[in-house]
């Protein structure tokens, strides 16, 4: 192998696997493909777990997963793609957090793994077997990594924070209703 080394091949495999899985999950949300529920069903679910408005939340998550995943697989705009996908996975992990770590119990293990892989790719870069490399890294500059990760972290923290407030208010409202029924 004269042109490409093990690192390039490893990054290609990681990009294809992570990006492909993310794109498929996003397509479930956006289009109902691969057994998904499309925007309507996903929007209802998003609303039920505290992401409101549900349809807009489903669209944002679906675009971040589909777009971020496809771009990661291609190795194009890698800092933005990895950041967007990792933000979507942080949102998913927040939903599963109360169930603990392991996925078999409904935990956040899977979302965290995909999110960390996407963030790792944003930081490491796509390698030489990528469109970013072919295009001279015009969409993969060093300064783009902290900017993309910083903007995504701020937006994700705001979205998850608002969601957690809604969930907390809903839970407290139910507790108050239970106390009122008990007092009667």
TrEMBL record:
Keywords: Cell membrane, Membrane, Transmembrane, Transmembrane helix. It comes from the Bacteria. It is a multi-pass membrane protein. InterPro entries: DoxX, DoxX-like_oxidoreductase. It is found in: Cell membrane. GO terms for cellular component: plasma membrane. Its main location: membrane. The keyword Cell division does not apply. The chain crosses the membrane at residues 70-95, 107-123, 143-162. Belongs to the DoxX family. PANTHER family: INNER MEMBRANE PROTEIN YPHA-RELATED, OXIDOREDUCTASE CATD-RELATED. This is RpiR family transcriptional regulator. It comes from Streptomyces yokosukanensis.
């Amino acid at each position: 192998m004269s042109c490409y080394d093990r690192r390039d091949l490893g990054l290609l495999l990681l990009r294809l696997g992570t990006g492909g899985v993310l794109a498929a999950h996003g397509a479930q949300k956006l289009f109902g493909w691969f057994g998904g529920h499309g925007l309507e069903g996903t929007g209802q679910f998003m609303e039920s777990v505290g992401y409101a408005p549900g349809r807009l939340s489903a669209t944002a998550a679906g675009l971040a997963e589909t777009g971020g995943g496809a771009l990661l697989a291609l190795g194009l705009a890698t800092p933005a793609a990895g950041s967007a996908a990792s933000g979507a996975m942080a949102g998913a992990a927040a939903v599963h957090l109360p169930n603990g770590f392991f996925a078999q119990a409904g935990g956040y293990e899977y979302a965290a793994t995909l999110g960390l892989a996407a963030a790792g790719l944003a930081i490491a870069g796509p390698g030489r077997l990528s469109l970013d490399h072919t295009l001279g890294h015009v969409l993969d500059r060093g300064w783009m990594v902290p900017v993309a990760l910083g903007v995504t972290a701020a937006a994700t923290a705001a979205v998850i924070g608002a969601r957690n407030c809604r969930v907390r208010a809903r839970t407290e409202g139910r507790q108050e209703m239970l106390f009122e029924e008990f007092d009667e």
